[in-house]
Amino acid sequence: MNRLPHFPFIWVFLSLLVFVSSVTDAADRGPSRYNKKAQALAKQLAPTPPAKNFRKEDIAGLGKRMAAAIQVLENSHRTSGPAPESLVATALSFRNDMGDYEKVMLTNALLTNWREANGRGLFDKHGNYQVEVSRGRGVGEKMMFELIVPGKIYPRGSNQLANVRLILADRRRTDEESITDREKATMEQLKKMIEQKTNIADRKKWEAQKMNDLEQTKEQETTLWQKDMDAAGEAGKKLPSIRFFDFGIMQPVTRRHILQLEAGIAPTSIQTNHVPSAEFATPDCKRISLSL
């Protein structure tokens, strides 16, 4: 009877250990490379405040930004990935300062322009962007970037990366004051994007001032609280006498009741003989209103 060759157990164990380690290292390196590419692209896609006026020179800057972005997508497509669609989605997930409208429009602009550039061979053997068509229709012709919605028609969107498209140079727009129905639809989406962008900026300003729900700063809130306490005199130093009739049982105020009130869960009824306005302040100056 033939016998299988004998391998000491230690060699089998070490072989398995090396294999598992190599797989683990590969798995660890993959997400790291993936995130580095996505984070690098996310920096290039930083949102820009809406333009106050249309400046023709902004178009050249937008073209350079778009060319750099789609070049990143091409390099990722040519190497170990991720796929351009996944790379854009991950990159935009890092942009917490960008609204959903802008993310959708920017995703569409990036992928549409990259597919157009890739299909026409606008990347050289090193993956660098070039303007001359080397594949498909129009070989030898030049490509260029232009605004989807002209700046003369909608100035506020004239500096937005999501408003850029790649076209043949000899087909560029000649009339800056007329647009197609499809471009009109894009303009409506662009307006919604700008509106959301403005709201995000306003909210950041509001948060930077650290205002409460009544649009008061912490200093204003503390000043008003102190004013109320001074006006109340000695009575303001006493704990409020409030009782909850919860399921027919009278109970003193507890932390649980305060949490219920903040969560919108009201007890059966409330009785107070100390706070006529049915409002009292917690130690952090936050007021809690009781619906009587």
List the helices and strands and how they pair.
Elements (H helix, E strand, L loop, with lengths): L8 H36 L13 H21 L5 H10 L6 H20 L23 E5 L16 E5 L12 H28 L9 H15 L9 E5 L2 E4 L2 H8 L6 E4 L6 E3 L5 E3 L3
Antiparallel strand pairs: 1-2, 3-4, 3-5, 6-7
Helix pairs in contact: 1-3, 2-4, 3-4, 4-5
Describe what this molecule looks like in 3D.
The protein is mostly helical and 292 residues long. It has seven helices and seven strands. The strands form three sheets. The chain has a three-stranded antiparallel β-sheet with strand order 4-3-5, with no helix packed on it. It has a two-stranded antiparallel sheet with strand order 1-2. The longest helix is centred in the N-terminal third of the chain and has 36 residues, at 9-44. Mean pLDDT is 78; it is low at 16-31 and 268-292.
Number of strands: 7
Work out the helix count.
Answer: 7
Rg from Cα: 31 Å
Major β-sheet annotation: 3 strands, antiparallel
- The helical percent reads 40-55%
By helix and strand content, what is the structural category? mainly alpha
| Low-confidence blocks of residues | 16-31, 268-292
Strand content: 5-15%
Question: Gap between N and C termini, in Å?
Answer: 94 Å
